[in-house]
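Action item from last week, closing it out:
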Amino acid sequence: MQLRSRKRDFASSTAVNSTSSVSSTNPPKKRVVNAKFSSLGAKSVGQKVKVVAPTSSKFPVLSALKERVNHASSDSKILLQYSNLVPARLIRRYKRFLADVVLLDGVANDKEEVANTEETEAEEVVTVYCPNTGPMIGLLDGLPNARVQLSKSDDPKRKYAYTLEMIQIHNGERNVWVGVHSTSANRMVEQALASRWFTELGDYDSVRREVKFAKNSRVDFVLTSKNEDGSVAHEKYVEVKSVTLALEGSGDTSSRCAVFPDTVSTRAQKHVTELTELLSTKIEAKTEGNKEKERHKVSGAIIFLVQRDDCNEFAPSIQHDKKFAELCAVAAKSGIQLLGYSCALEPDEVNTSGAVRLLGPLPLQTSD
């Protein structure tokens, strides 16, 4: 499989004027905003069942899932809601987990945060937390004025009150919001699993998260189905990957292929290797006295959650991590499902809120 990268001008949708430019004669003032009590940030909504978290017990009690509700359209499939989004302009991203932004709509000029009138004459640069370990290829071309959305924490112990949630890019045809909060992908998948929106995973009775399955390793989710007598019949181990990069697709010039990762990821390689080794272990019948007892069925899946709505297909990126792509090919041959799903990020700046909506599955791009 060979993907062709396409150069695009990821121009910012926010115009730069002479008074707000970083190169202004009045350099922007930089500060760190400590977290203060405020309205809630991002949270999962509409969850129908509690997903069991790890406990001290070796086998946590499994929670039963409610029957799936049939939805007529994807509009009702809300994966995540934001109740307190703050618009800003991204100036730079550095040290992997930090970014400098200029808050918009007067947020930075709050009386509690500005000491004197001299500070209001120049823009203030606020340092925020950037929850993404990758290079964010294709997302930072609009700097130093890329439009972004932040969430604000109410935890007074946090050093950085604001967290970078999404960034707006131009894909050559239109503006697109892209989610950059990597761990949000797990929360969104958890909501979808609890609602049974991923029909490709088959039937299951319960969900556990953060389950240890190998030395020093945990899988994101385990889906369990039971026999009539209550014993475990089938366990499906599910790993989640957050996808932000899109390259030229295999169709016409307007098609886009979401790819993961956007750089070499030894951690992702490790996850795929251990999951494949787990499922490739032969299921042998155990003999207990004169009674044979068969082990339950085990399977696996890797969910690639594409946090943008402009892609037609997805694939492991052979350009950015050839070994990971090869390991995924081996995993697929061993029976592990490689599933891509796209979602739409929809901020509402008028009401300082927003939501992430599940769109549907994406086909896997394969080599000719």
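Closing note: The two ends are 7 Å apart (CA to CA).
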